[in-house]
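Input/output pair, single chain:
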Amino acid sequence: MNTKIRALPTLATLAVATLLLPAALSAQSSLSGEVIGEDGKPLEGAVITLDRIKVEKNYQVKTGKDGRYFVGGLRPAFYKVVLAIDGQPVAHYQEFQIKLGNENTLDFDLAEIRKQALAQLSDEEREAREQERKRREAAEKKFTSMKSAFDEGRKLFMAKNYEAASVAFKRASEIDPKQHVVHGNLAISYQRLRKYDQALEAYKNALAALADRPDPLAESEYYFNMGLVHGTKGESELAVEAMEKAAELDPGRAGQAFYNLGVVLSNSGKNPEALEAFKKAVEADPKHANAHYQIGMGLVATATFTADGKTIPAPGTVEAFENYLLYEPEGRFAAQAKAMIQTLSASVQTEFSEE
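Output:
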């Protein structure tokens, strides 16, 4: 019986087999290229997406500052390649072949892409597309101009140059009247300059700019400031109306809104109106200690006197000071509140004892 003995591979044969393995495993490719914007400059941040056809495998990469991109680890195959700018697809290849190796390149020239796209449109579509492009460019130019004036205004405002700031904000508001923030900053500048009528007009313009896109917190802020301006002018009814609107839009700040109004009215000599504002403050926020204190002080001013000169405090006076101490026992007005309670209680006691 003849038995054939199978020869073992030589060292050289093994070496060749070993060398072949990495080559088989590294059957991968890459894709690189650059994206040029319509202005002819490299475009940073453009997104290139590759989807391998018939296989659920995709890749995504962004261009760098030089407008270039690189995608490695690709299998040789056909891919759908999409270029997107600001989330909007602007160019695509349904079947782009990636061949073995690193010599695969794909560049994008947005000016050329737009030119080719326009060439495929009808005259009407081309005109509509062109008009839309011009509209976007005009809007971008307008926004840039407005923002430049607004930023200048903010810088001047922070430097407390309110007059110059108001000029810059006014310019920004004329460039784009629909920016409520611009009108709001203009109003505050006028308010600091004590140009109250102009401030109110600017606040109204800010509210009008919010008509199509309501923002309750921003609207509340504008009504709040309008209330302070009306209060400073001594227009108590308009001030209360504005503060009530502010409180309606932002109930959480109602107590502080009416308290601030009370302070403004008090400083303007409108003491009865101020007292009513402080009462509204504690209605909205029963724990507003300072409002309780101011109510007490307001009621002290309404005290009456007996024929022999003794003080008869208005109902609720002592209670107002006691409420202040309840919520702020160590507050800034604590000593005064305690003194008032002691004085008023002694007066009441003396009156009762004489009866």
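The radius of gyration is 38 Å. DSSP finds 13 helices and ten strands in the chain.
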